[in-house]
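Technical annex, item 7. During the second reporting period the consortium partners agreed on a shared format for inverse folding records so that results from different sites could be compared directly. Each record opens with the tokenized structure and is followed by the designed sequence. A conforming record, contributed by the partner at site C, is shown below for reference.
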């Protein structure tokens, strides 16, 4: 049984060594060290396979010229480890193919064990099971890391007070908004600074949260409402000029009645700059100018002038 095991293991290991050496050669961009390692393993494995073929046919003789292949292969492998790494090789990580190969080998060995019990000794079975267990453990870690990375990306584009998208998210959405019929609205709360000065920032944050809730409820489905910072908000809304302008007045109306917070009746307003996506570009700058005009004049909603 041991003879069968080793006669099967020799060619399999030789092929795996060739595959691993080939992957290393490609991933290290034909560096000298990787090239020497590949040539050494290729020569050593070829000598191994040649020995097996000669042995099966009964024509192998110790000390043949073919035996020198093992020696030259070992010298090339040793030389590859002797050479110093180049700077570019330090940046090369573990290629996914190596991980896939290690995961593939263990189930293959276990399948062979199930088909032919006793073909492999125990010191092969135990590492195969351990490798499979470590592979699943590694997969669970990778999945958790991917989930955390996704959450970090969401948090990077989310306002921590209101839970709305932040300026970064709005700018990203604005980049794909150029071919959409709709409008950009910029909103600035009126008389919000006295709220912070009088009641403190905790009450001010609650006001911002309730403002965000009122704005969200008044907007049609598919709109993007974002807090840009401080007491400024932005909205990307789909629809015709009349529909988006009507939505702007609906947003203004949400602040027409006071906010009741911890027994305090807090009254604030909102100034809105409206710019319809007419293809002229500079939506953010034009909406910002219209918003400041609305704040200066006190009319509530100002429509940006079309670009001539």
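Designed sequence (site C submission):
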């Amino acid at each position: 049984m041991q003879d069968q095991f080793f006669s099967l293991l020799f060619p399999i290991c030789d092929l795996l060594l060739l595959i691993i050496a080939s992957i290393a050669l490609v991933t290290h961009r034909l560096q000298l060290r990787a090239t020497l390692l590949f040539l050494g393993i290729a020569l050593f494995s070829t000598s191994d396979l040649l020995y097996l073929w000669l042995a099966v046919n009964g024509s192998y003789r110790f000390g043949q010229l073919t035996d020198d292949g093992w020696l030259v292969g070992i010298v090339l492998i040793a030389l590859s480890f002797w050479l110093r790494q180049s700077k570019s090789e330090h940046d090369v990580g573990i290629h996914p193919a190596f991980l896939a190969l290690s995961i593939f080998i263990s189930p293959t060995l276990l399948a062979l064990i199930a088909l032919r019990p006793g073909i492999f000794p125990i010191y092969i079975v135990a590492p195969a099971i351990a490798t499979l267990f470590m592979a699943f453990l590694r997969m669970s870690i990778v999945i958790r890391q991917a989930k955390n990375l996704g959450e970090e990306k969401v948090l990077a584009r989310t306002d921590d007070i209101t839970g709305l998208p932040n300026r970064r998210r709005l700018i990203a959405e604005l980049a794909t908004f150029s071919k959409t019929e709709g409008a950009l609205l910029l909103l600035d709360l009126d008389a919000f600074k006295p709220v912070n000065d009088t009641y403190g920032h905790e009450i001010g944050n609650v006001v911002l949260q309730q403002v965000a809730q009122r704005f969200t409820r008044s907007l049609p489905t598919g709109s993007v409402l974002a807090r840009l910072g401080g007491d400024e908000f932005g909205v990307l809304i789909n629809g015709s000029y009349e529909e988006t302008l009507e939505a702007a007045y609906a947003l203004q109306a949400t602040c027409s009645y006071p906010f009741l917070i911890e027994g305090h009746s807090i009254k604030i307003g909102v100034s809105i700059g409206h710019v319809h996506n007419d293809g002229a570009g500079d939506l953010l700058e034009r909406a910002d100018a219209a918003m400041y005009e609305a704040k200066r004049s006190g009319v509530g909603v100002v429509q940006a002038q079309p670009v001539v």
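The beta strands are 182-190, 224-229, 232-238, 259-261, 264-266, 269-276, 301-303. The radius of gyration is 35 Å. All partners now use this format for quarterly exchanges.
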